[in-house]
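Sample intake sheet
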Amino acid sequence: MAAEKIFENEIKKFLNKLPKTWFYKNWAGPYSKSGVPDIIACINGYFVALEVKAENGHASELQKRNVRLIEESNGVALIVYPKDFENLKKQLIELSKH
């Protein structure tokens, strides 16, 4: 299994344990909008979008643009790497408590 998919599965497993959380995996295909983050969630009323990358992965310019637009709309949007997983978990736990 690819490193990105393994990390994505770890994130989804963690999200399943968070209270007041709903999420889905965005599947990219020929009829979907390009550059949409991999995981879309609502955590305690907060819109959260996660672009999941393997340790050596890089976000495209379109992905970076979408993250910026979500942030400008007062949503939470992050490009996440395995090395940042512990910090990500802390951030998401804080959102679930607000």
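Comment: The first strand starts at residue 21 and ends at 25. The chain has a mean pLDDT of 93.
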